Amino acid sequence: MDLTFTPAQEAFRAEVRAWLDAHVPRTPLPSMDTAEGFRRHCEWERTLHDGGWAMVSWPVEYGGRGCNLIEWLIFEEEYWAAEAPGRVNQNGIFLLGPTLMEFGTPEQKARYLPKMARGEEVWAQGWSEPNAGSDMAAIRTSARLDGDHYVLNGQKTWCSRAAFADWIFCLVRTDPTSERHKGLSFILMPLDTPGVRVRPIPQLDGETGFAEVFFDDARVPRANRLGEEHQGWKIAMATAGFERGLMLRSPARFQATARRLRRLWEARGAGADPALRDLVVRAWMDAEAYSLATYATASRLLAGGAIGAEASLGKIFWSEMDVRMHETALALLGSDAGLLPAAAPPEAAGWLDGFLFSLAGPIYAGTNEIQRNVIAERVLGLPRD
Predict the structure, then answer these.
(1) What global pTM score does this model have?
(2) Fold of the CATH domain 123-232
(3) Catalytically annotated residue among 243, 288, 327, 377
């Protein structure tokens, strides 16, 4: 891996930086987990699209810029350094979008990807169920074929963005006699479909980043199935690879957190436990190490390689690193760390909100306990028993 950037890549970085400097809102947007914040973030997605920055690594015909993975990582570095708004449609652009490009028909790609890139249709993820969380093979939500439609019955929970989203992508059981990972299909469904009910789930901060979704004889066209019938597990595993691999959590996100942590140490470190300085340094080193590892993965992919089970290693690393960085920040904040974000001083509120969110990292995208099992069996080749 060559650790130097080419003149063309440096010119691309300068172009990204200049556009963001001219367009990033000077005042942070309201939380995307509120109705107003969701609307404002959708407006920002359209601004990104109009500037050609909605999803730089996508083909131009689908609303992208045709950039390679190295350029995408450069874009992410500048995006997070500019403190630009979060991506409200991340389930779509980072997870479903790449899955559609790999498994979708030409008609599906043309129908869904451009609107996804423009932020016109925001997507929720509908995998987990009350008795099927990290163990997705235990999914029971059914989809019975009736003519040219599937009829869905069941329940999904912890559906991110579903409180305000337009569409949901689901893994459902299309073969009622099947068990475990067999007989599942991947379905795309509008959330305003008759027979679909959305019940928001308040988070620790009271906002609604998740929802339960209930299906009661909800009908969806067969054309909304992604891939072959009963082959949904294969498709979902590809999506999970994107989720645990490069796309969902770029290293720039954690490099930005490490920079903020350094500034917090400079502001509050005087008189603090000297051991906290070592934790700040470790946070910086970990964020840089994760960045280098991601560049190595991107280089391997550009050379024709693939992301395999080792994606679980990255998922464990970034999720636990995120918790450690925020725990270090809380230690530096002292008594302010005991407040709710709404009552905390401005410099502390963001850290408190980030800490609450970081606690979910070892759970979503497959719990870290499950990821360690994956690593043991598929990377290290250890026996199941």
Answers:
(1) 0.87
(2) Butyryl-CoA Dehydrogenase, subunit A; domain 2 (2.40.110)
(3) 243
Element (H, E) at 288: helix 274-302
Q: How many CB atoms lie within 10 A of CB 147?
A: 9
The Cα–Cα gap between 318 and 298 comes to 16
Sequence ranges of the domains in the chain: 7-88, 123-232, 249-379
For 249-379, which CATH class? mainly alpha
- Give the 3-state DSSP-derived string for 62-77, with helices as H, strands as E and coil as C: HCCCCCCHHHHHHHHH
45 tagged catalytic: no
Residue type, 381: G
CATH number listed for the domain at residues 7-88: 1.10.540.10
138-189 pLDDT tens trace = 889 999 999 999 999 999 998 989 999 999 999 999 988 888 878 999 999 9
Beta strands in the chain (DSSP E): 123-126, 142-146, 149-156, 167-173, 184-190, 196-201, 210-221, 225-226
Q: How many residues does the chain have?
A: 385
Q: What is the mean pLDDT of residues 257-275?
A: 90
Distance of CA 248 to the CA centre of its chain: 4
d(CA 103, CA 123): 17
The residues facing 124 across adjacent strands are: 168
Rounded to 5°, the CA angle 186-187-191 comes to: 145
Phi and psi, residue 118, nearest 5°: -80, -10
Q: Distance (Å, rounded) from C-alpha 232 to C-alpha 241?
A: 14
